[in-house]
What we know:
Layout: E1 2-5, E2 16-20, H1 28-44, E3 47-54, H2 66-75, E4 80-85, H3 88-91, H4 95-107, E5 111-115, H5 128-138, E6 141-145, E7 149-150, E8 153-154, H6 157-165, H7 169-176, E9 181-187, H8 192-195, E10 201-205, E11 214-222, E12 225-234, E13 247-252, E14 263-273, H9 281-301
Parallel strand pairs: 1-4, 2-3, 2-5, 3-4, 5-6
Antiparallel strand pairs: 7-8, 9-10, 9-14, 10-13, 11-12, 11-14, 12-13
Helix pairs in contact: 4-5, 6-7
Amino acid sequence: MKIIYGISNIKKFNKPVAALGVFDGMHRGHREIIKCAVMQARRIRGTSIALTFWPHPQKEGSLYSLEHRLRLIAELGIDVCIVVNFNRAFARISAGDFIAKILVKKIGVSYVCVGRNFRFGRFALGDHRKLARAAKKYGFRIKALKVVSSAGRPVSSTVIRRLIKKGRIREAQNLLGRRVSVLGSVTRGSSLGRVLGVPTANINPHHEVIPPPGIYAVRIFLSGKLYGGACYIGTRPTINSKNRSTRIEVNIFGLHKDIYGKFLEIRFVKLIRPDKKFPSLRALSAQMNKDILACRTLLKGRS
Length: 303
């Protein structure tokens, strides 16, 4: 997938089919919109484009970082992703000008895929109906997809964020249409895990929504390969440390090489236990080995 940052860098494409949206959660509804663009582009032998915005137009905390979002968009087969810098100048662009100057003049859209709840333009006055009227005027086609619902409620990034923070991983997974996951880079830590006999990689998350503290059985996607693992989220209460910030550490099964600086995606399968304080490092070490065995057993049963 080719990534274009900024409106000024947009070029004309062959029969472009554009999916419009913030796509901050890449949930089931967002995926349907992007799949629509991919399918229509293939049908007319055109170029599938995802047009997204960063930072979030509603100033909400995004479910995923931009890097993570782009990776998830790419997985669906989009040819090009245009990342629009949502700043004050862009926020002042009217809905009509967004259509005429960006969709039509800059991109030259042949087809637009959009959710029926998508709003755009100054004061969010643009919607799928305005796009439909413009389509007749400028000669492009539009597909406005129904809002995806679950248990009678619209699937939304706001709801998913709330579920993840509460530790309701399975419910969030159902709305996402895939595993709850966190993208981060591997950083150097204190090497305490190695001392305790359980080496772990310290993860710096990229502005992601993090599940509550605890031990999780996880799948880890790294350098094109999928590994099993155990993930710790918490403040390490057993260790006498002044630093009480939340840490993320993973023990990656079957990996024995240096991965400092690399990006990896942690995909949460199940909570094994909550975080807790142990009476000694020896007790902590013993529990860590039990946790890893529990994670291995669970993942083996779900292979």
